[in-house]
Amino acid sequence: MREFTITSNEANQRFDKYLKKLLCNAPGSFIYKMLRKKNIVLNGKKADGTEKLNAGDAVKLFLSEETFEKFSGTAKTSTEFEELKKLSNLLKQGKPELKVIYEDVHVIIINKPSGMLSQKAKREDISANEYLLAYLIGKGELTEEMLRTFRPSVCNRLDRNTSGLLLAGKTLEGLQQMAEALKQRSVQKYYRCIVAGEVTEASHLKGWLKKDEKTNQVTVLRECPKGQSEGVEGKELFPELFQEKFQEKFLPIETEYRPIQVLKGYTELEVHLITGRSHQIRAHLASIGHPIVGDLKYGKKQVNDRFKKEVQVTSQLLHAYRMVFPNGIMGDSEMPLEITAPYGEDFKRTLRFIADT
Q1: CB 128 within 8 A of CB 120
Q2: Are 255 and 273 within 8 A, CB to CB?
Q3: Section 310-331 average pLDDT
Q4: CA nearest 206: which of 137, 132, 277?
Q5: What digits encode the pLDDT tens for the residues 224-267?
Q6: Which pairing describes strands 163-169 and 266-273: parallel, antiparallel, or unpaired?
Q7: Would strands 100-103 and 40-42 be described as parallel, antiparallel, or unpaired?
Q8: In the structure, what pLDDT confidence band is assigned to residue 214 with cuts at 50, 70 and 90?
Q9: What pLDDT is attached to residue 239?
Q10: How far apart are CA 267 and CA 265, in angstroms?
Q11: What is the pLDDT confidence band of residue 174, given thresholds at 50, 70 and 90?
């Protein structure tokens, strides 16, 4: 017999959803059969799986050890946990250094370096998500048992070669709050970048973005696609136009920017990302003739070659610099909270080079 106590990170979900995480290798038919036969009970009573769990609830599984081991994926979780513990030891040695900008009970925000994935692209990848799990294991805030049914996670994504603020939920409440804030766009996200050309005035750009999935490259259209209204998401107003195929091709985008400083043919910009589309900032700025320095996909070859040779810039100088939470991180404050992340060395080195030439 195995007994588990529901934690706050496992509460507020259906019992069957929890069981499918706990017994991740078991078919649903097995789980419901065990519920019917009272081989799995909730608070000592028969359950059908639709119950909503509360913190402190007791779950008992009257299964043989062999059956539990077979269906729980214990060996896989143990292997993963051991690998994360090794990573945790490296973090304690500063290899690599995980730059934590903000942390509370529910949320953690790091300054992701350029070159690090936000989340895995392949099974063998080590991304910011793995580093965060390792960090929490090192602090004793994440155990092997907890990892079976709840996984802290990154909430927003940055391109591999974009540095800056990466937001993650440590608890279920933190994940839910951050997901909702990002969905409602209540978190204001500001980026800093260095672009070719001198930009002397602030601007608010609108357009439409089309992505080629095969090349992972986007094109920005200044005019609206035929049959749609500018600035309107359109799904509710024009459902007949928003067939899935059409919607995938054209997405409305909005980008604001203002110059921070003009530097001898280049400009340091602050960009307010209003809509968050794939490659939006990079493609939108390139479409108006101000590509980001070091951007190999949307930039100017002559500019990129110069900065690669002179300053060893090998990727776009785009940095998620600032986040503003109007009502605090968890939406429970009357005062806004602003989080900023310092520039990386490549960004600072490039600014100095331009100023000195």
Answers
A1: no
A2: yes
A3: 95
A4: 277
A5: 766 554 444 444 433 443 444 444 478 899 999 999 999 999 99
A6: unpaired
A7: unpaired
A8: confident
A9: 44
A10: 7
A11: very high
| The one-letter amino acid at 70 | K
What tokens appear for 307 in the block? 């900065």
Sequential DSSP letters for 14-72: BHHHHHHHHTTTS-HHHHHHHHHTTSEEETTB---S-PBP-TT-EEEE---HHHHHHHH
Encoded amino acid at 74, one letter: T
Which of 124, 54, 129 shows the shortest CA–CA distance to 98?
129
- Asked if 109 and 100 count as a contact pair (C-beta separation under 8 A), the reply is yes
C-beta of residue 132 within 8 angstroms of C-beta of residue 99: no
Picking from 234, 224, 103, 236, the residue whose alpha carbon sits closest to that of residue 171 is 103
Q: Is the pLDDT of residue 89 over 80?
A: yes
Q: What is the pLDDT of residue 285?
A: 96
Burial class (CB in 10 A: 0-12, 13-18, 19+), 183: exposed
**Residue 179 pLDDT:** 92
Question: Tokens standing for 28?
Answer: 């649903």
- 144 CB burial (10 A radius; 0-12, 13-18, 19+): middle
Tell me: cis bond preceding 96? Omega within 30 of 0 counts.
yes
